[in-house]
Amino acid sequence: MIGTVLLAFLAQANAVPAAEQPPSSAQTAPTQVARVRLRLEADESGTIDKCEAESAEAPKDFLDKICPLFLSKTREPLRDKNGVAQRRTWFQPIKFVIED
Prior knowledge:
Elements: H1 2-13, E1 32-42, E2 48-56, H2 60-71, E3 78-79, E4 85-86, E5 88-98
Antiparallel strand pairs: 1-2, 1-5, 3-4
């Protein structure tokens, strides 16, 4: 169950082209839809160093698997008008489907 959810999330996070995704008719009807809003923080180098659930309808074991995926990523650091790198905070909504 969590594996299916993680694969769907990774496909969305990595922006897989629609042509490579299975057609929607091949997917089964969802039994439960849940949403999570993550608060992510990155240091001055762009390394994500904090991941917290701001709001969640997800089980804790799901969050324990999702946050490490984000913590392994980096982003372009936020820079001020002088080009100095700054800490960065943003919110990432995630919608997932739990199937039987």
